[in-house]
Amino acid sequence: MDLGMTERVKPLIEQVRRMIEDEIAPLDAEFHAEVGKHPSGDRFKHTDRQLEILGGLKARARDRGLWNFWLTGSDRGYGLSTVEYAYLAEEMGKVHIAAEVFNCNAPDTGNMEVLERYGEQWMKDRWLAPLLNGDIRSAYVMTEPDVASSDAAQLAFEARRDGDDFILNGEKWWISGAGDPRCGLYILMACTDPDAAKHSRHTMFVLDPDLEGIEVLRPMHVFGQDDAPHGHMHIRFTNVRVPTANIVLGEGRGFEVAQGRLGPGRIHHCMRAIGQAEKALSMMCQRGLAREAFGKRISDLGANYDIIANARMEIEMARLLCLKAAWMMDTAGVRAAQPWISKIKVIAPLMAGKVIDEAMQLHGAGGISQDYDLAHMWTHVRTLRFADGPDAVHRRQVARAELRKHVNEKI
Amino acid sequence: MDLGMTERVKPLIEQVRRMIEDEIAPLDAEFHAEVGKHPSGDRFKHTDRQLEILGGLKARARDRGLWNFWLTGSDRGYGLSTVEYAYLAEEMGKVHIAAEVFNCNAPDTGNMEVLERYGEQWMKDRWLAPLLNGDIRSAYVMTEPDVASSDAAQLAFEARRDGDDFILNGEKWWISGAGDPRCGLYILMACTDPDAAKHSRHTMFVLDPDLEGIEVLRPMHVFGQDDAPHGHMHIRFTNVRVPTANIVLGEGRGFEVAQGRLGPGRIHHCMRAIGQAEKALSMMCQRGLAREAFGKRISDLGANYDIIANARMEIEMARLLCLKAAWMMDTAGVRAAQPWISKIKVIAPLMAGKVIDEAMQLHGAGGISQDYDLAHMWTHVRTLRFADGPDAVHRRQVARAELRKHVNEKI
Amino acid sequence: MDLGMTERVKPLIEQVRRMIEDEIAPLDAEFHAEVGKHPSGDRFKHTDRQLEILGGLKARARDRGLWNFWLTGSDRGYGLSTVEYAYLAEEMGKVHIAAEVFNCNAPDTGNMEVLERYGEQWMKDRWLAPLLNGDIRSAYVMTEPDVASSDAAQLAFEARRDGDDFILNGEKWWISGAGDPRCGLYILMACTDPDAAKHSRHTMFVLDPDLEGIEVLRPMHVFGQDDAPHGHMHIRFTNVRVPTANIVLGEGRGFEVAQGRLGPGRIHHCMRAIGQAEKALSMMCQRGLAREAFGKRISDLGANYDIIANARMEIEMARLLCLKAAWMMDTAGVRAAQPWISKIKVIAPLMAGKVIDEAMQLHGAGGISQDYDLAHMWTHVRTLRFADGPDAVHRRQVARAELRKHVNEKI
Amino acid sequence: MDLGMTERVKPLIEQVRRMIEDEIAPLDAEFHAEVGKHPSGDRFKHTDRQLEILGGLKARARDRGLWNFWLTGSDRGYGLSTVEYAYLAEEMGKVHIAAEVFNCNAPDTGNMEVLERYGEQWMKDRWLAPLLNGDIRSAYVMTEPDVASSDAAQLAFEARRDGDDFILNGEKWWISGAGDPRCGLYILMACTDPDAAKHSRHTMFVLDPDLEGIEVLRPMHVFGQDDAPHGHMHIRFTNVRVPTANIVLGEGRGFEVAQGRLGPGRIHHCMRAIGQAEKALSMMCQRGLAREAFGKRISDLGANYDIIANARMEIEMARLLCLKAAWMMDTAGVRAAQPWISKIKVIAPLMAGKVIDEAMQLHGAGGISQDYDLAHMWTHVRTLRFADGPDAVHRRQVARAELRKHVNEKI
Lengths: 411, 411, 411, 411
What we know:
homotetramer; Acyl-CoA dehydrogenase family protein (chains A, B, C, D); Butyryl-CoA Dehydrogenase, subunit A, domain 2; alpha+beta; oxidoreductase (chains A, B, C, D); Butyryl-CoA Dehydrogenase, subunit A, domain 3; Butyryl-Coa Dehydrogenase, subunit A, domain 1; 4-stranded antiparallel sheet
């Protein structure tokens, strides 16, 4: 069970880290400061400067071959293992736009995996190729406002067959990346047969975002922020017509696609969260050493040693757990890895939230302001406790796997 | 030790609660939706509709005599005790603009107390009267970007004597309410003698916000939000000239004023936070009963009974502790109440943060969005763990008071 | 809602506190050191010295009128309110044998309440009178080894009618006080009709411990200790014959008696636990001030200020909550007080366990040894998380009460 | 960083696990039930049956070559790595007497390491050989009643030179294993030069336990239990004469020996604690599935799924952290591994305590009784939060290591 950095990945990590520190981080704040400055006033349009920043960085990353690392276990790209990629994801978590610079950002990676694994050739040609090139973005269209998505079998968005087409009707929300004007693909889960068995009711479609009948109602706010221009959009579909050919894998097999999609993505999210926790701990130490109160360094005051030590210990444990989940995925497959993915999906966001919270507290009021990344990191990791399944659902999975060791029946 | 609602205050609570539910809550969302819609595009200017909403509600509250409850132990107004007022503050915490409607909002109440207690007659005429009328707003100008304000003796903003004036130079930030165009008073703490004894270095001034040399640099963001038009402003003072007559209480007595100001305000903050926790628990129950997953009410799933029970227990304990701190203030004075205020200052925001966090989690992704108050409540109570002294400083006070019971020396 | 010490109870508290400190505490260790020294080697027989210690202290307490305080709301004794008694119970919690010295110890107080409230005159003459005098002890015989007592309806110990008698068969365990040779009464709950409605299956009996067919199998160990000579006994009943006249209140009304019995007792347990937490905090401060490491007082090291502050805050909150539960019992009756009793039943033992745990940690290895009371206090409060219903059951009650505020149906 | 079970160690684990389950566990309870049954009444003498049990098991283990696994990185025995041994230690943690059966129990392993690494040949001949054979036991004599041992430089037990001898005077306590009549060696740390530099004051001696002037005063109790016949003894040394030749490594080098001794031992303790947590989780699941209340399996009630899931997640993280510490020791040496050992020393006992506590709670009152191992496991892991340095000291080490990454100076 080798959880360490391999010799192969070490130089990649070094290059990625250096590019993030030297080239991406300095432009990250500028990128975000541009939000809302498009002449039209539309926050969901990139300014020229934003496109220039992103375009320039992406071109350089690609030229250096620092691109599409997430294509694990593949003969394209690096063919990294999930364990190897995990170390890279951690680095990319430290600066907001970094993952996109290396074409490794959610939800595109998961969507590319769907196409790679389950897509027909024409789907690959049309959408996978430009996604791998970083030319377009995409969205994964699953969550609905009217049902608890934690029980995905409840999803009720309707796809009704009409000849060779399906007619889509309903609302979806929290569609991340659908605000981006470059978004060129929706992968959408719809209910094609509400009377079928629980896991055969749904079907996965690929479609263009500009079909008639698709209306972006509003951006959902994340603790008051619209995350423009990426955005988490609330979308209404009214009689949107999609050909049967746009079904991925087969009618009624939506769950199968969804499950295959989520495993690696959850690990990536977790490793990026761990990267953010590392950054927060580093900021906490630096602040604690630099600032004084009551005649002492802040780090020497009160419980701060304990706070720093706890942060370090919890980061290490979460990283090891995440690497083990990645190793399970590499060696035993996504199904066997499932309880491990559930474990880290609970642990990493909670841990990162706690560490960032302590770092904010040690920074004083500045810590929640625009002057540091901490506030944004904090609200971001908080969303991970819902995204891809709330904590409660993942804990339930872990408990069931545990109890099943002791009884010979369905738990 | 009567911590209950008195007969006198019960009808007031009932009236306040009814007005909040029936009249204020329905307009609260509209008020906030107006932010940024001023024709000038200036988020720190009220729209006509905002002024209409506020003005109408305030007039009605005042007509009904639901006004200035915070004037505790006074022969003006109701002469409520702090315990009695605490129950009212809890209600006002449940809706964002409610406290201002009843002229009970921070930082104005604290500032009015300073004027009432320490101000000279001309100061009262000029600023206290219109504040009591709700005609102007005010700001308390203390925190500085370059020092840890937890150790207030470090505050370095300079006030240099020049004849009958003082010349102010330096920066202050997190000046809440200074964004409001109706803000007509700054109460400002400055260092007049850096070489004096630790608690005699600072002096409190009253001044107009539109003096020459005062420049509002930017709004500080609270988890990405500018809280316009109230705002928490970063302000630069360049050679601002203030007459000696504008000193409150006396040169070098800034700490005394600051201490007198903070006691009641902290309790008010805490009771409002408890009100928010009550609201969150109520929302959590309603959501848990209304929504289903896996064929059950969400409230019946997993650990939700325990979560609800823990929330109820922690709210009750925090409220009782807060009421005891209020009772100490009423019966033993602000100095003797100090360790009790420190206790509740630590407990209430932590508790409220936890309860609101659980309520968000039970709401799923919607819980962090603009569709519910939870996200804003959560970020707001998080700020209370810094405001008026970070948790660590208050815990330190509690511990010192405890240890002093066992030794006959300074701890 | 007056939760304070009344003028009436203050001198009693002072007398009780003084007698505990001056007279009881010094003999407590000696009493326990005598355990196992009876010439027979039987740990469940008092030595002469033990009887002398207890007898002497009890006589003195009684002579001073410091006796049977627990008889709240009664015209016998002091007629204290539950709130008033709670303050006395806190003091008595600080030294192991103190409660018995004042004839206020469990399970006798609860048993006396059963007799007082539901007993017939002959039962009062035979058992209540000597219990009120402190001449005999008693046991409450409810818990069974084979069922989860948290769901008391499951209790299966059989009482089968045979003419004018009932024949008892089955096992009971954790029968506290049944080891004491002075134990002269069992109050026993048995299933008289397993087919009746859930809460009408059981009947409460009073009986002599020396009836034929009663066999004490063994003392249950509490973390390895047998708590001799009090003991928590495992008892087998084989064809034990009890007359119908020994039924309390009526056949099938066992639950009613049990519920009436448990309310006050739970509050007493909680207040004694709070007394132990106070003692632990006091020991923690004294140790922290007296001992040095790394050139500093231990109290000045690491997170100890925070630990002390947290302990103080949690004790205060638990005490206020407990006093409110007592006040509810005094003013609204045991039924209305039920959710409040559940709250404090969860909170007080958890809180005390945490404070004592921290005090142990600060004492180093000595803290878990026989040289300090901490270890025994810790294991004792741990048992309170099971006794009279486990935490989970009480949390469930609190949650149901909360949810019922929002729906018009049985939860 | 291979943290997995190697092919080499897998069959050993299997053999050890099987022998523990099939042969040792069934005799463990009988061994402990014999305590105190020696005809002399002396709890610190083994009964014949105890010697028979231990002797028989040890002979069989040795015959099978399941012996002295702890000799890691050595060409004697198996030459296992610390990572490999860690997996074995986890298994041995599950049954009390198991570690001794395989000659892998504390404090003997640490003492053997001292002799192996720093001992002179005559010391090895005299004490190491019979220890490796399992013929004698030993004790490590460090902790003192009058100083906080967390700051070991304070240790004041006196060794005064007198010609070719040293004269020892003072008291030591918590000397584990010194109660065992087979104990044939003390390794003792004494202050030979109180005026020397902080880490050069102390010297390590080897000596016979039956020297004149050594008096075992009493067994220290661990939550009321004396752990006989092993025991944690309080010992007084009065003018005990030890030749200079009995010094290990050199005068003033006691700290060096102590540091070298403690690293591996801490990891072993932690892995055994993890074994106990696994056992507790397993018991929790079995109990939850077997017992019913309110018409459901207990595992299906309330928060039990979450409790089980949390236990599983925390065990996995602690195990991975422990394995990483072992791997650091194997690959980078004990000094570089130090912060990792501190981390796991904090985490493992806390985690195990929490898991065992939850398992007890789910077992109801039985869980704290003699009918299950849980109570003894719980009190045992609680002691690990003091043993080999309290949590606070280890957290301090972790924090200092963290801060040192950011400054170029001594922290």
